[in-house]
Amino acid sequence: MVNETQHTCSASSSSKSDCGSSSGSESSKDSSRCSTPVLDADRHERLREKMRRRQDSGDKWFSLEFFPPRTANAAVNLISRFDRMGAGGPLFIDVTWHPAGDPGSDKETSSMIIANTAVNYCGLETILHMTCCNQTKDDITGHLQKAKRLGLKNIMALRGDPVGEEWEEEVEGFNYAVDLVKHIRSEFDDYFDICVAGYPKGHPEAENYEADLRHLKEKVFAGADFIITQLFFRSETFLKFMKDCQAIGITCPIIPGIFPIQGYHSLRQLVKLSKLEVPQEIKDVIEPIKDNDAAIRNYGVELAVSMCRELLDSGMVHGLHFYTLNREVATTEVLKRLGIWKEDPRRPLPWAVSAHPKRRVEDVRPIFWASRPKSYIYRTQEWDDFPNGRWGNSSSPAFGELKDYYLFYLKSKSPREELLKMWGEELTSEESVFEVFTCYITGEPNKNGHKVTCMPWNDDPLATETNLLKEQLEKVNRRGILTINSQPNINGKPSTDPIVGWGPSGGYVFQKAYLEFFTSSEIVTALLKVLKKYELRVNYHIVNVKGQNITNAPDLQPNAVTWGIFPGREIIQPTVVDPVSFLSWKDEAFALWIEQWAKLYEEESPSRMIIQYIHDNYYLVNLVDNDFPLENCLWQVVDDTFELLN
Amino acid sequence: MVNETQHTCSASSSSKSDCGSSSGSESSKDSSRCSTPVLDADRHERLREKMRRRQDSGDKWFSLEFFPPRTANAAVNLISRFDRMGAGGPLFIDVTWHPAGDPGSDKETSSMIIANTAVNYCGLETILHMTCCNQTKDDITGHLQKAKRLGLKNIMALRGDPVGEEWEEEVEGFNYAVDLVKHIRSEFDDYFDICVAGYPKGHPEAENYEADLRHLKEKVFAGADFIITQLFFRSETFLKFMKDCQAIGITCPIIPGIFPIQGYHSLRQLVKLSKLEVPQEIKDVIEPIKDNDAAIRNYGVELAVSMCRELLDSGMVHGLHFYTLNREVATTEVLKRLGIWKEDPRRPLPWAVSAHPKRRVEDVRPIFWASRPKSYIYRTQEWDDFPNGRWGNSSSPAFGELKDYYLFYLKSKSPREELLKMWGEELTSEESVFEVFTCYITGEPNKNGHKVTCMPWNDDPLATETNLLKEQLEKVNRRGILTINSQPNINGKPSTDPIVGWGPSGGYVFQKAYLEFFTSSEIVTALLKVLKKYELRVNYHIVNVKGQNITNAPDLQPNAVTWGIFPGREIIQPTVVDPVSFLSWKDEAFALWIEQWAKLYEEESPSRMIIQYIHDNYYLVNLVDNDFPLENCLWQVVDDTFELLN
């Protein structure tokens, strides 16, 4: 009779909650406390499950391969690239293993650390490559343990290239990728998702194509979850390979490796390494234009797009893997033309979620690190509380120390010369500092004609949301209220709003207005007089570098300033102003004056002394307007303060 | 320079979070998860601290004394009285110890169980009296352990009356209240707040007034936290006593015991027991009117009001303790005339918070038990999760069984005859059941002229909030949508709103519209067709007594349907629709048809068979409209369903 069921489950009237025990998210099962709402099923799935779900739903996807950079500066650039290319929605990225580059070390350029950064700091599902030849079991186990500790969940198991000219088997050693696959499964059970390489033309060292297919089958049967192929130049090559694999019983996903030709030399080098032959029809096009980089790249994009279309149209291919060579333009272009680059303006939460398994369920953060999410992750990496999905009150966990300014992902992306152009080769007064803040807000060039595109507290141009407040921000920065963070109040905009929306559709998002700035003690004195009038409407925290702290926060409780209401879910409150963590943030915020700005100048120079003066004497202030349904009163507070001073 | 500080704390820039560790609520210190916001400082304080805070703030208070009733029915009535008198805001109530009534037992009339009910089910701060004479140490320790287990935090330590005519000391036994005080402190350390009795005229058995004062001092120095006095008839008596206490070094609070004269016989009996003498001026007034109860009560109220005014005006008295004799009218009248009866329309949460120490911080509950809060507390009493302050997802803790219908606080307050008058001496069809529901909603008398003031699912008249929906509810009940729970949608009303407000002032409260009802399978079939149109806007759960369950809830997650946003706090979401606990509620909701309604009729009678039919064949449905800022669409859903059926 009742048959329009969507979810149906049956529980006899005597047995309780049978239904619930077979469902619900991980986090809600683990705890009887208010569970972290699952905003995004992706956050709880393993890579192989995500792949399967995409295949089932017919939703095409792509992935991106990168290699570890040679220098720390290049690493900083690569991470920016992860952030930008991550915006297109890759299912995963992978990082190759550079045996010559100390790949398992803690160096900022090692394979391990780059993959760690991608997972933890950029929130990308990441596969770490690992080769096994010429390494002891203990070395390999050590690398795998470290990868697990860092939150990596996926390994591409490879043999690697032998050291000498000739390949010699080692007795008891790891001679083939299959040995590594077996080792991972025996030592780490089902913890890792394992990927292996497939060779559409057969491995160059295999006896023949059929023998190579058998090797591939061995790797899959030893425990590999999916296959990524070597590059190829014709879609038929891949489709034949795929059918041959299926014919011998390989049923796992096989992902074609796509190499958009980006230049004459990179193609030649890759071909040499892979021992592949470039088809004559491609050579015929490329040779005549080999000195015209743009032309070659255009051709490469065309070629890749048409080959990818053929693959996708075959119905056999659900995802495409791109060899990016750490470059952005060609691959992005191919993906956009294929229509699978999906820059989704909707965010699962207002901030980027880390992909570390234990941080995937994190859903509350203090607002202070809004523009420095990597610093927040770094400073909270030792917290073991994230399995509960909540950040919570910071009074228990300690924030990591700030001595690690050398850490490449906390450094500015811009080189010193550029920073000096933006922030002033020479500062003459506090007002010249106000000018820098004002230019950053307005986007206008400074008096030397340079735009200020970043600040010590903000390594990126102004957020779209902050643009809503531009006019007011400009006015107050000019007068010495040096803003570093702000958000407008929002009273129930749809969660799909392109600027302020986040979370699943059908919901409503809210914000309390927030303003955070540095300012002089003179202004603080006036401000405190003004704030008395506003009583509990405005919560404030005011602190100087020595930690003298003034607040009206009740019991030092956190104040939720961003929250969302969604169909069929609990309330989500991803951003809070927390009085306790504010004191940790204060250390960082003040230190940035010195570490990023003052140190650009000679010791004892007037410029440096001006910044040092501000660091020593200014206060860091944050204000929250609790009356979110009314017009934001914080501008009035600031106006009243200036008026009092006049 | 900065001196307008409110909270100030200083932390050197090298030490982190020093500030936080010395503050914050209990719950936020215990856990790094999103802490339960402290809505009400009271909830975390011990009684003696509450008393001190009220004294410091100059906020006068009162407390109420009750004795355990003789019968189970009287117990049910007394509990209703606790709920009503609790609304006036007593600082605490106390329950006397009846040595003859098996006071420590599990009987529904025992002192222990009545105090347990007051704390856990009525949410009242409660003092349990306990006497010590003629009892072994082990008995007393056992009683105290049980009290602690039940969540009682306060003990009034008394000697009690000797069994024989003459008082004889037992060697090694408990001879005086001071022995009990010492025992509590030595066995339970500082767990209990301890109250002792003071005698403004001296204890009748004491050698003299001075000796009795010395005994009192001993009790205080042994660890008592405050004193409640025996009744007295003149304010001078108390004020002199208080000064005498202070003169010998008793500094703890001394609370005058007020006895509003309510009748000639009760006065005579009390005087006999307490061995007090009634002043001649009172006797002179009372004797002539001794047969006029109303006149005596009026006089008693006048007398109590004027004596209380004198006490409060003296500046030495901050709180008044009332000997209610389990009666309501006189005491309430005195309190109202004194202006200290404070019926605060503002609630700390939408439901009454239990005063059990571990449940004080509870801040989320499923909506289903909204009208049966005592049942919810009963069925969740074994959960040990409340220290975290959250109810959370119900998939882990089991709900207690429902076999305990005999439990006096789950029974209807109305006797069988009254229920029959309301719900029908004889039912002729399902429609006559619809009629009962409709009369309950409208408040109109039924065809026999009786108003329906309660239902099996609702032991009280319709809530004010539900009145907002009256018209629509009437319409649908008439047609067989038998509503048992509902709330309108609310999009940000002030937290001080007299009807829907809750929580501290300055906040905003929100609700999603909710409707819960029983209905026939025919209507359910049509309803499900209609619901398809609404997609995710409306979440539904539909279940029959056998547990066949139909829902579109994503991943069986809870849906927050009441939440509040407050200045300087995290979001609070006190009510959720939880798919898993719904199946436990279902058992209770269906069982109430039989236990409370069907069983009013003879077995095999047509009336009983009609209720049994509904029990066996109807569905229990709940609907949530997720789009709270728009007009409630649930009435449209129901209209569409009826239209489809026509």
State the major sheet of chain A.
8 strands, parallel, barrel
Largest interface (CB within 8 Å) is between: A-B, 102 and 101 residues
SS field, number of helical segments of chain A: 22
Distance between the amino and carboxyl termini of chain A: 78 Å
Oligomer: homodimer
The order of strands across the largest sheet of chain A is: 2-3-4-5-6-7-8-9
Q: In angstroms, what is the radius of gyration of chain A?
A: 28 Å
GO molecular function (chains A, B): FAD binding; methylenetetrahydrofolate reductase (NADPH) activity
EC number (chains A, B): 1.5.1.53
Keywords (chains A, B): Allosteric enzyme, FAD, Flavoprotein, NADP, Oxidoreductase, Phosphoprotein
Catalytic activity (chains A, B): (6S)-5-methyl-5,6,7,8-tetrahydrofolate + NADP(+) = (6R)-5,10-methylene-5,6,7,8-tetrahydrofolate + NADPH + H(+)
Describe what this molecule looks like in 3D.
The structure is a homodimer of 646-residue chains. With 646 residues, chain A is of the alpha/beta class. Chain A folds into two domains: 42-163 and 172-263 and 293-336, TIM Barrel, CATH 3.20.20; 365-645, no CATH class. Helices cover 38% and strands 16% of the residues of chain A. An eight-stranded parallel β-barrel of chain A has the order 2-3-4-5-6-7-8-9, surrounded by five helices. Chain A has a five-stranded mixed β-sheet with strand order 10-18-17-13-12. Chain A has a five-stranded antiparallel β-sheet with strand order 11-14-19-15-16, sandwiched between helices. In chain A, β7, α9 (235-247) and β8 form a beta-alpha-beta unit. In chain A, 50% of the residues are buried. Chains A and B meet through β1, α1, α19, β16 and β17 of A and β1, α1, α19, β16 and β17 of B.
